[in-house]
Specification:
Length: about 700
Amino acid sequence: MQETKSTCPYCGVGCGVVIQHDGRHITGVRGDPDHPANFGRLCTKGTNLHLTATPVVLQHQRLHVPLKRAARGEAPAAISWDQANREIADRLLAIRAQHGPEAIGVYISGQLLTEDYTAFNKLARAVIGTPHIDSNSRLCMSSAVVGYKQSLGADAPPCSYEDIELADCLLVSGANPAWAHPILFRRLEAARAAKPGHKLIVIDPRRTETAELADLHLQIRAGTDVALCHGLLNAVIQRGWAAGDFIAAHTEGFEAVQALVRDWSPARAAEVCGVAEADIWQAAEWFATSPRSLSLYCMGLNQSSAGTAKNTALINLHLATGQIGRPGAGPFSLTGQPNAMGGRESGGMATLLPGHRDPAKAEDWAEISTLWGAPDLPGQRGHTAVEMFEAAAHGEIKALWIVCTNPAQSMPDQAMVRAALERCELVVLQESFAHTATARYADYLLPAATWGEKEGTVTNSERRISRVRPAVPAPGEARADWRIARDIAALIDGGLGRAPRLAADSAEALWLEHREATRGRDLDITGLTWAVLEADGPQQWPYAQGATQGTPRLYTDGRFATNNGRARFIARPYLPTAEATDANRPFALTTGRLRDQWHGMSRSGAVPGLFAHEGRPLVRLHPADAGTLADGTLVRVRSARGALVLPLKRDPNLAPATADIAMHWGDEFVGAQQGVNAVTHGAACPDSRQPELKFAAVAITPAELP
Ligand code: SF4
């Protein structure tokens, strides 16, 4: 048996794994005891990773050869790589010639490695010439990106996982690490057990497993997070807990926020949020007066039409209390996907450029244009995820190249998304798994290598870059994602009569290109090589030339990444959700993860044991709302966009008037009903363009019998 060190492909904790294999088949997996994210531990998903690579899965669930559909609705047939690449390049060139490069969209994924991101970013912007490249990370962390940039000057989580152990007070807001980031939750549990007097505050409309552990659970009404933060800050100011010296020395804009929250007494916030006023006073006291307070936050804040406002309101609280830039203190956004951070760093998104450059700045475009040898780089931001599919639905985008993601399940407002896929002249899907909902719409299916077969790097939530290593060859003719991009890019460049602009011949070469784009930037990694990662293990950026170790914490000198070095208080009012509940649709539907499943289940759904935790889709409802309806009763969940029928589960852990459906279940589990995204909607935060997957107004009624 051989062992190869790599990184878990599921969540943003980024645990190190040791793959056990015989060079042809993966036979087992164990936690890497040397990896600083997990020190040898794995959660249930990680422990079962090898079962996603069994011969049965490889044979029946993986895509082995390129496939082409002669016509929509027909079964796809095998085609050679050469022919597929040639035909795709020709069709993209034809669409480009007839409608312009903006008629082509590239939709990628936080599952990709940083090297893949770099390749697709160049393919879209430098080779095709379209600004429309975005990632499914738009759905999970773009509000955190904009929140950090607005408040602290750079998209850089300033904390480390070890801060969980160092903090005296932990504020977990809109996150359930017990299920979504299980290894961090284990660290949190251990920290509490080891530290008498430790305080844990959880803000969540659901009484989650994380909330069960809390000293104080603020079970707010869904969508009222900004009101709560304003109330907490009001309490801090009223009681004199604000850190006046820190505010004066290191921040700007406090007066405007002070004026904004003057009207947000804890009593008013309590009324709006549906919690006890005394609990707001208590939470404010613990957060402000504990020696070290850390906040952990995730989708509950990000997936919202007020996502950026929620992020900046929480960061305001840190700035006002000086709980930042010290061990155990700071605002710590947790990423959902394994390499959402790598996508941010490499700028493979419509609103970002490589090296944390800003699409709004001409000098940033010029630098990337020079770096890439592409003088005709499109100089504007492109369509973000929902916008891209809306543009396709309207006929503005004619071709979509989708990589390692399943928008026909995961995007909000499925009716619109599926209409967009149907209307496109060309849909290319690059995937590892053969049977996703999106595959049905693809004209070409390109088989991609996946975990255990690929080489590159990922960055986890604490800015730590880890190596991803191949243990076995990819099945059939599956290829690395970056290579698929490069080969078609070469044909497009050839068709345009120019030298290849995406010519890298290895993952490491692409990583070196990415590394160069960080030179002199806040995330500078020009001192880091794969040899260093090999010798010293995973490292946190920045890691500039001359450095001998990574950087565990940012802003420790009180100087932030803004032009004048001062962090900014952001004064934003509390706004209600994009859609309001009313007499016709009285329930606030929220969506979220199950502990043992991942995204659309194309990988985790291959492991029977992972269904033991929850084996079927359900809609949860508070018993007071369910009335006399028993568990298992089929109910119809209906929004302004669509409907689905699911069994009911009475759940006293939900706040009244709240409904909850796990995000994972797609067509294969709920019939032709498109999963929960049949009813969610695409209203997005105006700053981050992240859609409001955490709130939709729905009616829930007993389903009519056929
Ligand atoms: Fe994988 Fe996340 Fe579990 Fe770690 S916590 S083993 S990264 S799923």
